[in-house]
Design goal:
172 residues, binds copper (II) ion
Length: 172
Amino acid sequence: MIRRSLLAVVFSALLLGAGVLGAAAHDTLLESNPTDGAELDRSPEQIALTFDAHILDVSPALVLNGPGGEVEVSEPEVVGPELITALPSLKDGNYTVNWRVVSSDGHPISGTFAFAVGDAPAADAADGEPEAAAEPAAESGGSIGLIVAIAAVIALAAAIVLLVARRPKRNA
Ligand SMILES: [Cu+2]
């Protein structure tokens, strides 16, 4: 009876650990410059995204939309864990960035964030997409996932120790 429930604990710990570690394998965006929601006095010279690992240099994409529609930006460049895109001088207004890169584990990852230049009214419903808000949530989900994974591994180890410790007593 006890042994069976211990096995159940081991099994669920394994499932949980495997699932969480798999999900945590994607690179995540650590920060962007400009940051999401930034209100800048003047046009930034570039957009830099920093990830938690060296992203792959496989067709990175960055689309910038502003008051006049899509802004022509230079080819985004992968430099280690960063994606850097040089910008022309941006006029005042609200801007939305959509990016997509290939994570070091080979999975495409993408996100959206917004910033404003000059006297533009604060970015709101006009820009739509509350996706930018979803991005940090996913990141904290990742670190919570890691904690859960570590807890699962500890639970697994404890269950195995209990299982092994009990066995001789039963047989004796
Ligand atoms: Cu992945």
